[in-house]
Amino acid sequence: MIVDWETYYTAGTKCRELAVSLRAADKPVHEAAEAQWSGMAGDAPGCMQWGQAYDEAARGTLQACASLANALTNYGAVLYAQGYNWGITNKSSPPPPQPDISQVGEYKVALPNSTHGTGIGFGDNGGAKEFFDDLFRKVVKSFGRIPNGDADKLQKAYNTWTAFADNSAISETLYRIMLISDLFIDMDDSSHRYEIQHRLNDLHTALKLSHWPPDAWLRRSTTITKQLRHWPQPAPTRSI
Description:
Elements: H1 5-35, H2 47-89, H3 133-143, H4 151-166, H5 168-171, H6 173-182, H7 190-209, H8 214-229
Helix pairs in contact: 1-2, 1-4, 1-6, 2-8, 4-8, 6-7
């Protein structure tokens, strides 16, 4: 099968559509993490260790998402350019329109730490009598310090990460890349077909083997949400 310029343009568009979907999926998480979640874990013993692990997972997940979106945007431009050159060289009728072959540069995710002693704590309001009851005494005895995370921020983080984990753009990323590759599966020019599919397969394989592969985003974000959900909640208060 001779692949016409429209196929290249379709593949390029699908690459860029997937990039847009990924950016839309991680944007709420990124914005909330930058503006709302600083210090949510507190800095008490136990809280500090949890917060540091959370920060590493959150930054790595969002960096993988951003890097993939940029790679798809840029390879979409490559496919557009190849399709345009093919159409002009072969005097296609109709001729291909001038494509957008703009590319994006590398982006580094930077998020504020979730570990600071700025939280109001879980309803202590400065008094032990309304804070954790027996758990409070056990925590102080074990660690010598009251957990000082921010329950409201942690709940919002849980809700936002849950939405990210449930987004189909995350769970279907590898599948959608393979669908793009399949557009060229019957291409007669075997060397050119290999080049295109090899590049897409490299991206597919690199993502699966990387420290933060897309097929692990769902598991990792689900792990984050489970950790957030299981963060200690205040016991019912009692009056004295």
